[in-house]
Amino acid sequence: MKKNHLIAGALALCLGAGSVLAQDAPQMLRQDDMKAIGQAMGQLGAIAKGQKDYDPVVVEGALSSIADHAKDFPTHFPADSKTGNDTEASPAIWENMDDFTARADKLAADATALLADLPADQAAVGKAMQTLGANCGSCHEIYRVKN
Questions:
Q1: Residue set of the binding site
Q2: What residue spans define the domains of the chain?
Q3: pTM of the full structure
Q4: Which residues pair with 92 in a beta bridge?
Q5: Which pLDDT belongs to residue 146?
Q6: Do the beta carbons of residue 65 and residue 40 sit within 8 Å?
Q7: In this structure, are residues 74 and 30 in contact, taking their beta carbons and an 8 Å threshold?
Q8: Nearest-CA neighbor of 34 among 65, 3, 4?
Q9: Hey, what's the torsion of the CAs at 33, 38, 41, 47, to 10 degrees?
């Protein structure tokens, strides 16, 4: 009986460790970055569309999140992470890493510039969304595989 409990415990420990390792997989880390950027864009979009009132704290937080995650994003593309974990990364990323990184850097720089001159109202948030959205869209066209 003790043997069965030990085996079950060891199995549970191994399964738990596997899920922790999967969470640290580059594919998962970059998906987390994209989810955070998407959430921040959603917050800005709600303000731009008038669904939420303008709130400078929300705008600043969203722009900070975009800048931080865009800077981090290109670090999660080692050569051995081209597949797995439901990745939507195109092989073109590894073929054009300099361009890919430059695009992420531009998104981060644009978000940082908007932070320095924080959009002051709904209309300004809408303009900021156009700038940031153009960055996202151009990168997704080239470097994202649509599943």
A1: 136, 139-140
A2: 26-143
A3: 0.83
A4: none
A5: 83
A6: yes
A7: no
A8: 65
A9: -130
26-143 folds as Four Helix Bundle (Hemerythrin (Met), subunit A) (1.20.120)
What dihedral do alpha carbons 50, 51, 53, 57 form, nearest 10°? -110
Helix (H, G, I), strand (E, B) or coil at 145: coil
Rounded to 5°, the CA angle 95-96-102 comes to 155
Distance separating alpha carbons of residues 42 and 74, to the nearest angstrom: 22
- Residue pLDDT, tens place only, 77-121: 999 999 998 999 999 999 999 999 999 999 999 999 999 999 999
Binding residues for heme c: 136, 139-140
Report the C-alpha gap between 123 and 49 in whole angstroms: 9
Amino acid at site 140: H
Token pair 């995650």 is at which residue? 69
| For residue 51, pLDDT beyond 50 | yes
Average the pLDDT over 57-67 and give the result.
Answer: 98
